[in-house]
Each structure stands twice: as structure tokens, then as C-alpha cells.
Amino acid sequence: MGKLSSLKIFFTLILMLSISVSSFSQKKKAEAEIKDIMKDLDVAGLSVVVVKHNKIIYTNCFGFQDIESNKVLKENALFRIASISKSFSATSIMQLVEAGKLSLSDDFSNLVGFKVRNPKFPNTVITLKMVMSHTSSINDSQGYFNLDSINPDKSRDFAKCYNDYAPGAGYEYCNLNYNMIGAVIEKTSGERFDQYIKGHVLDPLGLYGGYCVDSLDKSRFATLYEYDSLSRKLTPAPMAYEPRSELIKNYTMGYSTPVFSPTGGMKISATDLAKYMMMHMNYGQYNGVKIISKESALTMQTKVSEGEGGYGLALRGSHDLIQGKAMMGHTGSAYGLSSAMFFEPNEKFGIVVITNGSNPAYLPGGNDINAVLRKTINCLYSNFIK
Question: Please, where are the H alpha helices in the chain?
Fold first, then answer.
């Protein structure tokens, strides 16, 4: 071996060692910062995943999966991720659109099986796209755990479910929208909602999770904790994983769907959620598997209204989460949990952060994404991507 070759190998090894030391240093710095965030904001447990150049480059868990039993949080822990769940329903709808079984311009009344019309604007059709983008003029004032609330054949107060503006003319985030979307998936596909998601989204991507509590390993559930700001105490919220087994026994396809909470009931790990996120980041494909077409993926990511940073179809934009970056994704909040899934489709990086309980405080000027999520995402971006 010549002298030049030996020098080249030597300097290559030095460079590799330098990169390794730098990466280790950044990892330690990030983890120290995250522990400070957790202390400041009374975080029970925190699971994080970083994707860079289309690969998962960092995963970690901090704190507790269950405080009472001192069970530390593990990477395979399942969280009820709340409103990020809506994107699974929207993805399924796009599959059915591609199959020619429905259209985003369809009259929603015809799809869901009862009249969905704002009585203040009786001649204005509420379309499937309006419901998916929260521009339907429908609200959650009468609840969203039962479709009876908006069904004029079941409720005398159904008119209270509608706002004063015309469908398509305004934005209001509404959970009832997506529990009705779940019913449409059942009526159109002929499959029970939870089973459709498993068979057409989760299984093809190789992900473990779902909406039916009884079909999952309960030992993996991360206990969710609601926060009392006065006492700074975290209290378990067992209803987060209520199986609703008796209700499922008496299930009516296309109507009982809120039992599974299409609007917020997905249970999945942070790592598997990151893989699902990568599918959307790559416009419908992950690991060689095509879930939806590029056209459908772009439709979901295209803003319909200015709400929440530009809301599309269960995916929203954010231009201030990471300075100078146009991010796309969704957040979730329920039973004390806070979750975030955001990606940059052009630069091919993304971050998933889930906490099973914390102080839900917000930073000044950042009232759409709470402080735990915002600070942790920026810490991970600074140390692993920037």
C-alpha cells in the first residue's frame, strides 16, 4: 500500500471518528434539553422520533409509561394519539375516491344516510370535501360521540349543530365531522371502520395499532394523565382506553361508528406513527408500498381554508413551528395526551412527539401547538436536522 493511500485511509478514519463524536455530543445535548423541558412542564412520559433524508435516525423515550407502577416508557408503547387519527380516515376516503366509489364533491347527505343540511342555508349542498376540511358549517355543540345529535330524525336540536355562516364560507374545527366520515367509510366499503383501517392502511405499511381496544395488547398502552394546573398533579384518565365492548356487540354498520372514534381513537406507537408520516411525506408511498396516489396525497396537503396554518383534508400547515420551514402534519390533544406529527415534504425530514401527560401551557404567540410539543420539536430539529 502506497504512502498516499495510507494517508487517505488515516484521514478518512479521523473524519469518521469526528462525525461519530459530534453525533454523540448532539444526542447528549438534545437529551439534556428534553429532560429540562419535561421538568419545567411536568411531563409524565415523552416518546420522540426524528426522520431525516427519509430515514428514522433517532428514537427515544423518556419518563413513565405508567407512574403508579413506576413502569418506564418504552419504544413499543401505544398511545391514543387523538386528532392525528383524522388523517387515517381521510387517507381511507382518498382510497375510496381512487376506487371510484365516491367523490369529494358528493352531497354528504347521500353518503351518510340522513339529511345533512344547514337549516339556515337549506339550498346549499354540504359536500364530502367540506366535511373533511372543517368548512361544513357543522359544530360540536351537541356532542360528537353519537350521530343522533345531528340526525334530524333523531334529535329535535339538530339545528344547533350548524353555524350561522354558509357551508364552504368559514372554518371551524369539528370532531363530529370525522365521526361521520367514519360512518361513510363503512357504508361505502362494506367493512367495519376499524377493520378497514387495519386492512387497507396499517397492515400494508407493516404497522401495529388500531381503533379497537380489544384487538390490541393492553400491556403496551401508555397511561394517559390529565393535568391539574393548581396542584401540578397528573391524574390517570382510564376512559382513554375504554373498550366499549357491549356497544360493539350491538353495532350498526354505518351508524355506530363513533364507538371507535374515527376522530381521535387511533392507538399506535410513536415509531409506527413516524412510518405512517413518511408515507404522507412521500406522497402516498412508504417502503415500496403505495397507499394512495400522489394526486390524492397532494389533495390532502393542499389547504382548503386558512384555519390552523392552512387546513387541507386532515393535514394542516404550520409556518411558525420551526422558523423558516413550511411544515405539514397534525396535532392531537385528549385525556391529557398531546401529540404532534409534522414533516417537510421537500427536504424529507419529519418529527413525531407524543406525551402521555403534561402541563398543557402554550408559549406566547404559539397558541395552536402547546409548549411541550413546540419546544421538543425545535430541540430535535436543532440537534438532529439543522
Answer: 3-40, 86-98, 108-112, 128-132, 175-189, 193-197, 203-205, 245-249, 270-281, 294-301, 371-380
Per-residue DSSP letter, 334: E
Beta bridge partners of 354: 47, 339
Would you state the cell numbers that stand for residue 157, as one nine-digit string?
Answer: 336540536
Judged on CB neighbours under 10 Å (0-12, 13-18, 19+), 22 is exposed
Q: What is the mean pLDDT of each run of 10 residues along the chain (386 residues)?
A: 60 52 80 98 98 97 98 98 98 98 98 98 98 98 97 97 98 98 98 98 98 98 97 97 95 98 98 98 97 98 93 96 96 98 97 98 86 98 96
Whether the Cβ atoms of residue 148 and residue 112 lie closer than 8 Å to each other: no
Say how far residue 51 (Cα) sits from the centre of its chain. Answer: 16
Residue 368's pLDDT is 86
Measure Cα distances from 88 to 33, 79, 169 in Å: 32, 15, 26
Torsion of CA 317, 321, 324, 329, to 10 degrees: -30
385 CB neighbour count, 10 Å cutoff: 19
Say what the pLDDT of residue 46 is.
98
CA 348 vs. chain centroid, Å, equals 18
Element (H, E) at 332: strand 327-334
d(CA 216, CA 210): 7
Residues in CB range of 201: below 8 A, 6 or more apart: 88, 91, 92, 207, 276, 291
Q: Where do we find the cell 402534519?
A: 329
**Contact between residue 365 and residue 348 where contact means Cβ atoms under 8 Å apart:** no
Name the 3-class secondary structure at 56.
strand
CB-CB contact of 62 with 358 (8 Å): no
Residue 278, judged by CB atoms within 10 A of its CB (0-12, 13-18, 19+), counts as: buried
Residues 6+ apart with CB under 8 A from 370: 333, 338, 358, 360, 361, 362
Kind and range of the H or E run holding 349 = strand 349-355
